[in-house]
Design a protein that fits this description.
268 residues, alpha+beta, Aminopeptidase, seven-stranded mixed β-sheet, five-stranded mixed β-sheet, 8 helices, 12 strands, globular
Length: 268
């Protein structure tokens, strides 16, 4: 049975670099040093661990940050060992993080993720009920870990408003609502797996979609030029949409396609 707890002691935090390396397939030299984690958790941040009996199998690490007058929580990392993925542990970590944040006066949590990764997009935008209005080009520079190597490190920024009605329903165990089906596709896939960019005039009455490649890892291995084309098409579409004040308000997928849902609406 999986249990969760807040980690504050050095002996609890020391396993995190090795865990981080195992989750993301990166070199130990690229992990967060324990002494930095200790400083963060004693100055407004939090690390929550997921345990299978006595073994730590996942964690969520966040720190306070300020944007303008808003004090919020920035989620630096959240991950689960590959052999434990697909069991709802990541979802449990985020709910525990939400509970801790509300208890400590935070009303929102923010983080970045790769919008080409279908699983992450579905988790963040649909399962958690986050929204997005910011896109970062090559956010981390060149990356060499097993998950991110080979493409510019563009990121979509997720905004998780903890008291939002949908988020509260999700936290109470209800199924997230399905977003509306799009009227206009800003990025869509051809049969040859290449993306087509279809920028247009934006309307407040229409629902827009930006498609996500269904098998990104296969593209990166077998057709890296197509993977890069997806990155660039998404980049242009998100930037154009956000310039017109569209909001990523959901995510949908079926057995063959997956896509972000955007419309003109104000985040909570």
């Amino acid at each position: 049975m999986i249990s969760y707890r807040v980690l504050t002691q050095p002996q609890e935090l020391k396993p995190l670099p090795a865990l981080e390396a195992a989750i993301w397939g990166q070199d130990m030299s690229e992990t967060v040093p324990t002494h930095m984690t200790i400083q963060v958790v004693h100055n407004g941040g939090v690390v929550i661990g997921a345990y299978d009996e006595t073994q730590i199998v996942g964690f969520a690490f966040a720190m306070p940050y300020r944007r303008g007058e808003t004090l919020a929580l920035w989620s630096l990392m959240a991950g689960v060992l590959p052999q434990y993925q697909g069991r709802g542990i990541g979802f449990g970590l985020k709910l525990q993080q939400r509970t801790w944040a509300l208890e400590h006066g935070y009303e929102s949590i923010h983080w970045t993720f790769d919008p080409l990764q279908r699983g992450n997009a579905n988790f963040n935008m649909y399962r958690l009920g986050a929204v997005a209005t910011r896109y970062h080009i090559n956010y981390y520079g060149e990356m060499h870990d097993a998950i991110n190597a080979g493409l510019p490190s563009d990121r979509l920024e997720a905004d998780w408003f903890l008291n939002d009605e949908t988020v509260q329903r999700i936290a109470n165990g209800q199924t997230p609502p399905q977003p509306p089906y799009p009227d206009v596709w800003l990025v869509k896939s051809h049969k040859n797996s290449r993306p087509e960019l279809c920028l247009t005039e934006f309307s407040a009455e229409k629902i827009y979609a930006i498609e996500v490649p269904y098998h990104l890892n296969a593209l990166k291995q077998n057709a890296p030029d197509k993977a890069l084309a997806w990155r660039l098409a998404q980049r242009d579409a998100f930037i154009a949409a956000f310039e017109q004040e569209l909001v990523v308000c959901g995510f949908q997928q079926d057995t063959a396609r997956s896509w972000f849902v955007l419309q003109k609406t104000n985040p909570t």
